[in-house]
Design goal:
alpha+beta; Uridine Diphospho-n-acetylenolpyruvylglucosamine Reductase, domain 3; Alpha-Beta Plaits; 4 domains; 13 helices; about 20% strand; D-lactate dehydrogenase (cytochrome); flavoprotein; FAD-bd_PCMH-like_sf; mitochondrion; FAD binding
């Protein structure tokens, strides 16, 4: 990866202010790099050509809640966890169900079309964006559509902007769908003797090496069995949730898991689910001096998920790398976190090789180089292999119309 810093920063205050910044940058052909939460793992906030980083720290308001319509208007630096806390505080009975890393902000979530552990039921970010206010490269301000949940009027600009990684425009406001908070939640944890059995046994899986969580200490006093493990989340009214748990128990029987533990109250839910949400922080806590962590993702057809997880885990081990694998079976997306010594060129090269090999195998399995992290600066070659030169040319034509000087987050997705 090529990582460079921006030349200047400018706080975005409101849409017209951001529009003014864009007009100046457009006039002088200065790159614009949007920054909302900074939690990107694929280099989206880097500035390989210098330029101005528009920081949205002051654009963090929930602009308007339309409770009866079950939607909310927010600015780009709103954190999804803060939004849900505010909705709960107001007693709305509503929530925003897309749940990536706890530090993710709405602007970046739109940019990468992220998802999270709820993806199997609630989909991805694209499914929850009603409309957006966008500042284009020349400072023009457009709104993608109006507020009804269903709309067939004109081109689907939402689908174009969501997942474009800030290369087509800057999101300054978004209207998001909300969902009713389920009456009842429960969580189950099911250890397995082998990974393939775990992948085959459930519709929503997170597979990980439990030693990472144990040694990181984030879920103490609970100590987890170090084995391929399914984490299952149930939601709905109490009766159907109880029925679902019974059904899942029956589904599990042919695989003979050594245990099936489900939460009996809210405290146990938090404890059982904590291993999933604490895994990244546990990995970070375990790093030694000089170590970095490479966090990347791919997605494949469901039938190939077990193959690529096994292959990737084995390949990293053969290179002598510490790697943690976790995945979402519901959307066939998995993440590999590789820890390596950045001061050791050979080890850094091994980490790079592990990632490139994982991506290559995903593409060979008719998968994608990224399920939710985005292309950024590190997977541009992989995108070309994935979709082909003709498709890239169509993308470049669209980019050229909206951003003729290529100043919007340049160096990401593909090169000029």
């Amino acid at each position: 990866m090529i990582w460079e810093t921006h030349t200047a920063t400018q706080n975005g205050l409101h849409t017209e202010h951001v529009s003014g910044i864009a007009r100046i940058c457009h006039k002088w052909k200065v790159p614009i790099i949007p920054f909302s939460g900074g939690s990107s793992v694929e280099g989206h906030i880097s500035a390989p050509f210098g330029g101005v980083s528009i920081v949205f720290a002051y654009m963090d308001r929930n602009v308007k809640l339309n409770k009866d319509d079950m939607d909310v208007v927010v600015q780009p630096s709103v954190c999804w966890t803060d939004l849900n806390q505010e909705l709960a505080k107001q007693g709305t009975g509503l929530w925003f169900p897309i749940d990536p890393a706890p530090s993710a902000k709405i602007g970046g979530m739109i940019g990468t079309n992220c998802s999270g552990t709820n993806a199997v039921r609630y989909g991805t970010m694209r499914d929850w964006v009603i409309n957006m206010t966008i500042v284009l490269a020349d400072g023009s301000v457009v709104k993608t559509r109006r507020r009804p949940r269903k709309c067939s009027a004109g081109y689907n600009l939402n689908g174009l902007i969501v997942g474009s990684e800030g290369t087509l425009g800057v999101v300054t406001e978004a209207t998001l769908k909300l969902a009713a908070v389920p009456d009842h939640f429960s969580v189950a944890v099911v250890p397995f003797d082998d990974l393939r059995g775990a992948v085959s046994a459930a519709a929503d899986i997170i597979w990980r090496g439990m030693r990472i969580v144990n040694e990181g200490g984030a879920t103490r006093p609970r100590v987890w069995k170090e084995t391929p493990t399914l984490f299952l989340k149930f939601s709905g009214t109490k009766g159907p949730v109880d029925d679902s748990i019974k059904t899942v128990r029956e589904i599990m029987k042919p695989y003979s898991p050594p245990a099936f533990e489900f939460a009996r109250d809210e405290h146990e839910q938090k404890m059982l689910w904590s291993a999933r949400k604490e895994s990244l922080y546990s990995l970070l806590a375990m790093r030694e001096d000089g170590e970095e962590m490479w966090n990347t993702d791919v997605a494949v057809p469901l039938s190939r998920l077990a193959d690529i997880i096994e292959d990737s885990k084995a390949h990293a081990a053969s290179l002598g790398l510490k790697a943690c694998v976790k995945g979402h079976i519901g959307d066939s997306n998995f993440h590999e976190n590789i820890t390596y010594n950045k001061a050791d060129p050979k080890e850094a090269e091994k980490a790079k090789m592990a990632v490139k090999t994982m991506v290559k195998r995903a593409l060979e399995m008719e998968g994608t180089c990224t399920g939710e992290h985005g292309v950024g600066i590190g997977k541009k070659d992989a995108l070309l292999r994935e979709v082909g030169e003709d498709t890239i040319q169509v993308m470049k034509l669209l980019k050229g119309v909206l951003d003729p000087y290529w100043i919007m987050n340049p160096g990401k997705v593909f090169n000029r």
